[in-house]
Amino acid sequence: MSSDDVFPTEVQLKQDEGLVYITWSDDHVSPYPLAYIRGWCPCARCQGHFTAELKFQEVSGRALVMENAEPVGNYGMKLFWADGHDTGIYDFDELRSICPCEACDPEQVRMTERVRPR
Ligand SMILES: [Zn+2]
Ligand SMILES: [Zn+2]
After folding, report:
1. Which of 66, 74, 87, 114 has a CA-to-CA distance to 34 between 20 and 30 Å?
2. Could you tell me which CATH class the domain 34-117 is placed in?
3. What distance in Å separates the CA atoms of residue 80 and residue 20, rounded to the nearest whole number?
4. What is the 87 CA–ligand 1 centroid distance (Å)?
5. pLDDT tens across the length of the chain (118 residues)
6. pTM for the full model?
7. Domain segments of the chain as ranges
C-alpha cells in the first residue's frame, strides 16, 4: 500500500490536550495540535479562491474548539469548529502530508511553516 492510499480509521479528539489524533489505515497515528490543523484549513473562506499557496491562519478562542469530524465521501474529512466554521474539507492525502509527528517530520519544521504550495 502506498502512502497515497491511506485513509483515517479512527479520529480521537482530546480537546483538553489541544490535540486530535488520527489513526490511519497503515496504523500510523498522527497527533495534530488543534491550532495547527485549524490553521491549515483549506476552505475558500480561509484561503481565498485562486491562490497557488495555502496560508496558515492564526485563530484563537472558540475557533480552536473542535466539535466534530465527519468523513466526506472516500477522499476527505470535514471538521466542525465551535465558532461555526465547517467549510473546511481536508483531503486525506493533504492531511497525512502535514502530519507533524517526529517520524514524518524529523526536523520538526512543519509546525513553524506558514505558507505551503498546494
Ligand atoms: Zn476554513
Ligand atoms: Zn506522522
Report:
1. 74
2. alpha beta
3. 12
4. 6
5. 454 689 999 999 999 999 999 999 999 999 999 999 999 999 999 998 878 899 999 999 999 999 999 999 999 999 999 999 999 999 999 999 999 999 999 999 999 999 998 8
6. 0.93
7. 34-117
